[in-house]
């Protein structure tokens, strides 16, 4: 009996961890020890799509966005604040602004920044 499905044959059927090929006979889960016979995996093809957003996220590169300039009277531009926890330092609030980066029929991109640790990230809505 094979536990291999269309797309998850490289992952543990028990916990979802990526399997490790420790021998020619089987692939093993490094987390829970589950084993899958190499014959269940042999000949299968895997395809991955990597987007520019994936690369920016992996390399922690900020998206290229030009912020609007400050008002003429030199007041600082105020960002909205949301009661969401910073994923990096757990500060209870984040500053945010939105920008339409994609076509008009798609959602805006929301840019968040932690006022404490300055961690930045974005979400496409």
From TrEMBL:
<keyword id="KW-0240">DNA-directed RNA polymerase</keyword>
<dbReference type="Pfam" id="PF01096">
    <property type="entry name" value="Zn_ribbon_TFIIS"/>
</dbReference>
<feature type="binding site">
    <location>
        <position position="32"/>
    </location>
    <ligand>
        <name>Zn(2+) 1</name>
    </ligand>
</feature>
<keyword id="KW-0804">Transcription</keyword>
<keyword id="KW-0732">Signal</keyword>
<feature type="binding site">
    <location>
        <position position="114"/>
    </location>
    <ligand>
        <name>Zn(2+) 2</name>
    </ligand>
</feature>
<feature type="zinc finger region" description="C4-type">
    <location>
        <begin position="12"/>
        <end position="32"/>
    </location>
</feature>
<keyword id="KW-0479">Metal-binding</keyword>
<feature type="signal peptide">
    <location>
        <begin position="1"/>
        <end position="20"/>
    </location>
</feature>
<comment type="function">
    <text>DNA-dependent RNA polymerase catalyzes the transcription of DNA into RNA using the four ribonucleoside triphosphates as substrates.</text>
</comment>
<dbReference type="InterPro" id="IPR034004">
    <property type="entry name" value="Zn_ribbon_RPA12_C"/>
</dbReference>
<feature type="binding site">
    <location>
        <position position="12"/>
    </location>
    <ligand>
        <name>Zn(2+) 1</name>
    </ligand>
</feature>
<keyword id="KW-0539">Nucleus</keyword>
<feature type="domain" description="TFIIS-type">
    <location>
        <begin position="82"/>
        <end position="122"/>
    </location>
</feature>
<dbReference type="GO" id="GO:0008270">
    <property type="term" value="F:zinc ion binding"/>
</dbReference>
<dbReference type="InterPro" id="IPR001222">
    <property type="entry name" value="Znf_TFIIS"/>
</dbReference>
<feature type="binding site">
    <location>
        <position position="29"/>
    </location>
    <ligand>
        <name>Zn(2+) 1</name>
    </ligand>
</feature>
<dbReference type="GO" id="GO:0006363">
    <property type="term" value="P:termination of RNA polymerase I transcription"/>
</dbReference>
<dbReference type="InterPro" id="IPR012164">
    <property type="entry name" value="Rpa12/Rpb9/Rpc10/TFS"/>
</dbReference>
<comment type="similarity">
    <text>Belongs to the archaeal rpoM/eukaryotic RPA12/RPB9/RPC11 RNA polymerase family.</text>
</comment>
<feature type="binding site">
    <location>
        <position position="117"/>
    </location>
    <ligand>
        <name>Zn(2+) 2</name>
    </ligand>
</feature>
<protein>
    <recommendedName>
        <fullName>DNA-directed RNA polymerase subunit</fullName>
    </recommendedName>
</protein>
<dbReference type="GO" id="GO:0003899">
    <property type="term" value="F:DNA-directed RNA polymerase activity"/>
</dbReference>
<feature type="binding site">
    <location>
        <position position="86"/>
    </location>
    <ligand>
        <name>Zn(2+) 2</name>
    </ligand>
</feature>
<dbReference type="GO" id="GO:0005736">
    <property type="term" value="C:RNA polymerase I complex"/>
</dbReference>
<dbReference type="GO" id="GO:0003676">
    <property type="term" value="F:nucleic acid binding"/>
</dbReference>
<feature type="binding site">
    <location>
        <position position="15"/>
    </location>
    <ligand>
        <name>Zn(2+) 1</name>
    </ligand>
</feature>
<keyword id="KW-0862">Zinc</keyword>
<feature type="binding site">
    <location>
        <position position="89"/>
    </location>
    <ligand>
        <name>Zn(2+) 2</name>
    </ligand>
</feature>
<keyword id="KW-0863">Zinc-finger</keyword>
